[in-house]
Amino acid sequence: MDADRQLVTDVLGHRPGAFERLVREYQGLCWHIIQRMVRHPEDTRELCQEAFLRIHRNLGQYRFEAPLKSWIGQVAYSVARRHLERKRIPLLEDDGDGGSVLEAVPDGYDLAASAESDEQSGVLHAAIESLPPLPRMLLTLHYLDEMPIADIAAMTGLPEGTIKSHLFRSRRQLRALLEPCLGVAA
């Protein structure tokens, strides 16, 4: 938190290079969140710029109650979510029964281990890309970026239980998609 406090103080104090340092440090996070939700490179670039403009304008409102990374992630998530809402793209797909139509990925299922070869990795990433925007982002942040659920909750404003539910459903859906290609037993 001391490094966060110093960086924010430097940016708010208009120290030369401070905002550029903030952008460099967090551009990967913003890109990842927005790209996983939007999946369109030109839109992602514009939305990342919009996110950093909002961060610059509203940095004085950051209260150090959570890591700066969580606050910046929250801004990126909000920008991506609003973009999808404007385009009327649903964050989730409704299968009609209140849950996923797919079953059976065990809680301990290791996504990284399931993609040991380049071909398997390509199949895995294609399956992840087929998920709706919100589950795709949550799944990649938690399993591929190893972000704790509490940090994701702070970033998205979603309750931890809701995130866990999305992760469970996403694992089930991925299992069903990967089963025929990778020989994963149900």
Mean pLDDT: 83
CATH class of the largest domain: Mainly Alpha
Distance between the termini: 44 Å
Query: Which word captures the global form?
Result: elongated
The CATH topology name of the largest domain reads: Rna Polymerase Sigma Factor, Chain: A
* Tally of discrete structural domains: 2
The SS-based structural class is mainly alpha
In CATH, the architecture of the largest domain is Orthogonal Bundle
Describe the sheet with the most strands: none
β-strand percent reads: under 5%
The CATH homology group name of the largest domain: RNA polymerase sigma factor, region 2, helix turn helix motif
Short description:
The chain is mostly helical and 186 residues long. The chain is 67% helix and 0% strand.
Please specify the SSE layout and strand pairing.
Blueprint: H1 2-12, H2 18-38, H3 41-58, H4 68-86, H5 118-129, H6 133-144, H7 149-156, H8 160-182
Helix pairs in contact: 1-2, 2-3, 2-4, 2-6, 3-4, 4-7, 5-8, 6-8
